[in-house]
């Protein structure tokens, strides 16, 4: 495995962890009131962007036949 492929796998794992935590926070009861409507909307926008980035990263990794755990909505706290 090339160094850049290892870095992609590491980046994937970090992104999954951060996105999962962000989505869990967004689903918490009272979180909107805690951070305010504007910050909440920005965080939702951030989650959408991170999800799109994760999808592109996974397509690239699949194209290179890298072995990784594909993320699902459940693993990312989207449902």
Labels describing this entry:
single chain; mainly alpha; 3 helices
Task: Give a verbal description of the structure.
The protein has 3 helices and no strands. It starts with a helix and ends in a 16-residue tail after the last helix. It is elongated and about 45 Å long. By secondary structure, the chain is an all-alpha fold.
Work out the radius of gyration. 14 Å
| Class derived from helix and strand content | mainly alpha
Low-confidence stretches: none
Rounded mean pLDDT score: 90
Instruction: State the major sheet.
Output: none
Concise summary:
Helices cover about 70% and strands about 0% of the residues. It has about 80 residues and is an all-alpha fold. About 5% of the residues are buried.
How are the secondary structure elements laid out?
Layout: H1 3-27, H2 31-35, H3 37-63
Helix pairs in contact: 1-3
């Amino acid at each position: 495995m090339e160094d850049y492929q290892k870095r992609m796998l590491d980046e994937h794992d970090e992104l999954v962890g951060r996105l999962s935590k962000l989505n869990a926070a967004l689903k918490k009861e009272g979180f909107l009131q805690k951070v305010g409507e504007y910050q909440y909307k920005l965080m939702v926008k951030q989650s959408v962007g991170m999800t799109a980035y994760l999808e592109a990263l996974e397509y690239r990794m699949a194209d290179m036949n890298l072995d990784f755990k594909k993320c699902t909505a459940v693993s990312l706290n989207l449902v």
